[in-house]
Amino acid sequence: MADIAELERSLSGLADRIAVLRDDPGSGAALRELENAEELLRNALGELARSRRRKDGGNQREQKLLRQIFRALPIPVIIMDTGATVRRINNETTRLLGSPAGYLIGRAFPLLVDVSGRAAFRSHLTTVLRGEESAAFQTRLAHQGRTHTVRLVLSTLRMPGEPQEMIAAVVLPTEVQLPEAQESSGDPDEAVIMAAAHRHELLSQLTRLLLDEESLREPVALIRAARLLAAETADWVIADVIRDGRPHRAAVVGPADQPPGRLQRDLEGMDPAAVPIVGQVLTTQSGIVNEMLSDDTLLGDDVLEAMEAGSLLSVPITTGDRIGGVLTLVRSRDRRPFGLADLGLLEEIGLHLGLAIRAQRSFQRRSLAADTLQTGVLPRNLPDLPGFETAAIYHPGSALRAIGGEFYDVFPVKNGWGFVIGSAAGKGEEAAAVTSMVRNGMRVLSVWEDHPGQALRKVNDALVVQNTGLFVMAAAGFVRGRKVRLASAGHHPAALLQTDGQVRFSGGGGVPLGFEEGAEPATEELTLSAGETLVLYSDGLVGSQSDEGTVYGEGRLTEVLARCVGQPPGTVVKAIEEDHQAFCGSHVIDEITVLVLRKSR
User: Fold this and answer.
1) Is 172 helix (H, G, I), strand (E, B) or coil?
2) Lowest CB count within 10 Å: 25, 266, 363, 588, which one?
3) Of 268, 269, 273, which Cα lies nearest the Cα of 247?
4) How far apart are CA 348 and CA 339, in angstroms?
C-alpha cells in the first residue's frame, strides 16, 4: 500500500490541475468528474489515516499486555539472542537467580550453566537454531552461590521490533516430565577436558608444595600456596587464618604483572572479621562462588571495584572438623568467571591447606618440647679433666624432627671422671625424654658403681621396666689416671689415634639399652699414653650418606684421624666436621655427635 504522505502529495497535485481546468470554459463535464474523484480520494485518505491510527494504538496496547503477562509468569523465562546473550528475563527468573534483571541483561547465558553442562547446552542451542522446534534437557544453573537442578526448554521466537530470531529458555522443575529431545552425539568438549587437566595439575603442584619440609612453617605454606593460586587460577588471593578464635590476615597476593601497591597494603591491614564474605564462609562453613558479582561490598567498601573484579570464590580452610581459616580468590572482569568446578577444586585445596597448618602446629609444639628436653641432655660446657684435653660437637640434622635422639656427657665419678655418648632409635620429644633418662641415670649410678658396664646394665633394666618402646645405643667410660674402662651397649667402637699415626678401634658391640632385661654390655680396658687420642662418635657420623648415596663409614673417619696426629681435641673435632660437611654437602639428615679425649701427660 502506498505511503499516506505520498498519496497526500499526489492528491494535492491533482487539486492544482483541477484549479487550472476551472479557468477553461470547455472543460465543464470533465471538471465535474475530476472534482468528484478528488472528493472520493480525500474521503478514502482520511479513512485510511484513521484506520492506521486505530491499528497502531491496538498494537501498542497488545504489546503492553504481553509484557505484563511475561513479567508475571509463575515460571522463569529467559529471552536470549542467537548468540545466547540474555535480552529479557521475567520476575520469576530474578527470584530464582538472585540478581536484578538489569544486571543479567547483556550477560552470556552459558555463564549461568554449570561448567559440566555447557557443552550440552551449546549442542541443544545449535539444534534449535538449525530448525528444530524445541529442545528439552536437564542441567544445573549456578549463580550467587546458589545451584538449581532444572529442566531447560529452548524454543525459537520471533518478536516485533527485533530484526532476528530470538530464543526463549523456559526453566521447569525437574519433576515436570517432558519428551526427551534426541541427544546429539558430538565429540567431547576440548575446553572442558583441558580445564579438568589444568585443575588436576594445580592440585598436584599444591600437594608437592605442602609436602616440602619448609612448608611446615605456616607462613611459608600459606604464602607459597597463595602465590601458586594467583599465578595459575586467579588475579587476587587472600588467606585468613583463625588464631585465638578470630580471623587474622595471613597472606595477600595480587596480580603478578603489577607491583605491590596501595590496594594490596590496604588489604593486608584490613581486619578480616569485618569482611562480609569471610563472615559468610565462617558462618555457613561451606564455600561460596559468585560468578557475576552483584554486591560490591563482599570484600569491604570499594575493594572489588578497585580490583576490577568480575567473579569471586571463597572457601573454608578446614582442619579436621574445625575451620582454620578462609581462602578467597578473585578474578578480573576480562577472565572466565569462577564456576562450580572451581568451587569443588578450591574446597579440596582448602582441606589440604588445613591439614598442612595442623601438621605445622603439631610439629612446632613437638619441636619446642624436644628443644627444651635437648637442653637437658647436652652439657653447656665440658669440665676440666686432670691429665686430659677434651672437645665435642653436636649438630642437629635437617630431617623433620631430627633432634633429641643423640647425647653426650662428661661427669665426675669416684676417683676419676666418666663420660657417655649415645643415640636413641627415634627422634623428637620421645627420644629426648629417653636419652635424658639414660644420661641422668648414668650420673646417678656412677656415684656407686666402679665400672661403666654395671651402670649401663642397671640403666638398661630401668628402661625395660619403663617400657618406653625405644632402645638406646650407648658407650660409656670411666677414666682413672691412664686407664679407661669402656662399656658398649650396641654402640660403634671407639677410635684410638696413636702417636705414630695408627688408628685402632675398640671392640664395641653389645646389646642396646632397653632391648631386654639383664643384657650385659660389652666391656674392655684401654691404657692411654701421652699424646694418644680417644674418639667416640655417633651413628649419624659414620652412617651418613653423600648426594650419590655413598656411606661415610669408619674407613673415611680413619683417614681423617690419621692426619690429626699430635693435634689438640678441638682441631680433631674441626677436621672431622669439615670433612663430613665436604662429603655430605646438603645431604646432612641425621644428628651428629663427636666426643674427643686426649691424654695430655
Assistant:
1) strand
2) 25
3) 273
4) 15
